[in-house]
Amino acid sequence: MEWLLVLVAITLGVPAAAWFAQERLIFFPQPVVSTAHLPARAAPFSVDASDGTKLRGWIVPDAAPRAPAILYFGGNAEEVSWALADGRWPRGWTLVALNYRGYGESEGSPTAHALLADGLALHDAVAARADIDPTRIVVFGRSLGTAVAAHVARERPVAGAVLVSPYDSLAAVGSHHYPWLPVSLLLRHRFEPAVDAGRCTAPLLAIVAEEDSIIPVARSRALFDAWAGPKQWLAVPRADHNTLGATREFWNGIARFAAQ
Predict the structure, then answer these.
(1) What is the SS3 assignment for 24?
(2) Which of the four CATH numbers 3.30.420.40, 3.40.640.10, 3.40.190.10, 3.40.50.1820 does domain 37-259 have?
(3) What pLDDT, on the 0 to 100 scale, is given for residue 117?
């Protein structure tokens, strides 16, 4: 009888722990440690979300009077200033990124619903600026952020989308890593970018690491296949999830896509 009680406790306890701890399994908020690495022209940029939450990040403006813009949505353990500081971004583009709720100096706590809505708020704030050409806004998502970028691409008229390590469904990714859990039943934070992808008509560049240990390539391919608009697939050999952005193929692909 004792072993049966232990089995029941495990059977019920593990899913319960996953239910209550999933925020800590999905979101890894990072603080702003320093801003010294940002380029000199970077300036603080903030947006008031629809519920009044203050979201903070930076804009790295281009000198052109009506510049195209890249909106960057980062990964689940990313403080976005480090991405904006990279010197390999295509020239001639304004870069904008906000830290997710609870990340950096942004207020609030992250949820799937809030992050998707915040992506739209960022787009609308940037598109309204006099120094931005609203017809040439590209959304750029990495890992978790590909769901936010895909949602913006569905709901707003963007010029293109770059999705790095994309996925079709967070539940599908979770089931890959935790096959013994009923992830689809437990998951409260529903990121389902494949649903948005089916209604996205903007050009897509999907960049994947052939040896990605976090987002299975099959999940990236499922998102790519669901995308309704013109699309390009770039698979970088010998790259993993966290080394993909350090490769020459990665940045060359982005430059070619931006030039188009």
Answers:
(1) helix
(2) 3.40.50.1820
(3) 97
